[in-house]
Amino acid sequence: xxxxxxxxxxxxxxxxxxxxxxxxxxxxxxxxxxxxxxxxxxxxxxxxxxxxxxxxxxxxxxxxxxxxxxxxxxxxxxxxxxxxxxxxxxxxxxxxxxxxxxxxxxxxxxxxxxxxxxxxxxxx
Length: 124
Description:
mainly beta; 0% helix; four-stranded antiparallel sheet
């Protein structure tokens, strides 16, 4: 069964950190660009960050630049999102998605597989 599984979400105080993981099973991520998305209550889903299949290219939404870092370990078939200096407005369900796109680009559209999400709550 082909699937992506997110983990690492939870409750954290403002200013804190979390690291999300996106693990693939049933297929290799080597040929996939990966995107992280989030959806807050009452808001549309938005692209947060993405990374190319070879890891050479990354992109960040303006709202998370300088605070979030995306990385990947293809040997572990896993992509990570390190989130620092978290703010209450980062509260959302975070999803990862895979896009069959081999090379040095990534995008927030045309995703082939989606995970079910992990909840991040930033609150004191």
